[in-house]
Design goal:
Layout (H helix, E strand, L loop, with lengths): L2 E5 L4 H17 L2 E8 L17 H17 L4 E7 L2 H12 L3 E5 L5 H5 L4 H8 L3 E5 L1
Parallel strand pairs: 1-2, 1-4, 2-3, 4-5
């Protein structure tokens, strides 16, 4: 294992994913890339493409926080900010960095959210052509 992609959003599940990614990276001396995806709003007129409550600048802060936490554990991380559909962005970045493993957290979702495909971890797990570790 040479390359790990960590999808991070600052939530408790992603904190667990960060810890797992750090442990695995140290064990295998693997490179770590960290992404946080700012979703793009569809059909917004005059507001701009991003949710004002979830702008790319907040995602950059999340990335910097993850990088600092990993550095405290002796793991160097490359930051990969992204925008768009989170599942598609994570998978595209995994392809770009040739990740051997994608690590992300799982949020508790309602049955309706799962049925509507609103689970990022579930979407990544279903569509990935790479190994996926989902921290619970």
């Amino acid at each position: 294992m040479k390359t790990i992609l960590l999808a991070y959003d600052g939530t408790e599940p992603s904190e667990r994913a960060l810890a797992r990614a750090g442990e695995i990276a140290k064990a295998f001396d693997a490179a770590v890339h960290v992404t946080s995806v700012a979703p793009v709003l569809v059909g917004t007129r005059g507001m701009g493409p991003y949710d004002p409550a979830d702008p790319p600048s907040e995602h950059m802060k999340q990335l910097e926080s993850a990088q600092a936490r990993l550095a405290d554990e002796g793991v160097k991380a490359t930051l990969v900010p992204a925008q768009g559909d989170p599942v598609d962005a994570i998978l595209a970045i995994a392809d770009k960095v040739e990740a051997d493993l994608i690590v992300l957290g799982s949020h508790d979702r309602s049955l309706i959210e799962h049925v509507l495909g609103m689970s990022v971890s579930g979407g990544v797990a279903r569509k990935a052509r790479r190994d996926v570790l989902i921290a619970h």
